[in-house]
Amino acid sequence: MQISVQIVVQTEVDEQANITEIARFEREGFEAGTLGLQLEEAKALPGRLQRSMIEAQAAEAIARMSVCPECSSRLTVKGHHRLVYRSVFGRLSIDSPRLYQCRCSGSGRRSVAPLARLPLSHSMQCGYVRGRVSCRIYSHGKGR
User: Fold this and answer.
1) Fewer CB atoms inside 10 Å of the end CB: C or N, the chain?
2) Tens digits of per-residue pLDDT, 20-45?
């Protein structure tokens, strides 16, 4: 038996849904050792789901920000760099384009990185977990 876990992303930018397989499992028989998810599979699944969701959200944000709000013309790409986003599911590297501002803005050939403006260093959950862990480490170390 083959089991596939997929994520379906429907954005306002793309009219057609994007289907991405995030996991595939093969099982044979009906035995205690092969029922359900194995521990390693269960650990990997949320991280893959998180990666697919963030990539889809970043792609939609980039598509929206790549158009001039004044004249609706497509902005020219100057280059790309990587942003690192930390979550409780691990680190994720996000492609962040650098775009030239539109000529209609009157600001010359300045460039901007739309995703770099956002506070993307880590998720709120990651900050919460790090805060809880550091409080416990600090309180345990002080008692010695």
Assistant:
1) C
2) 999 999 988 888 888 888 899 988 89
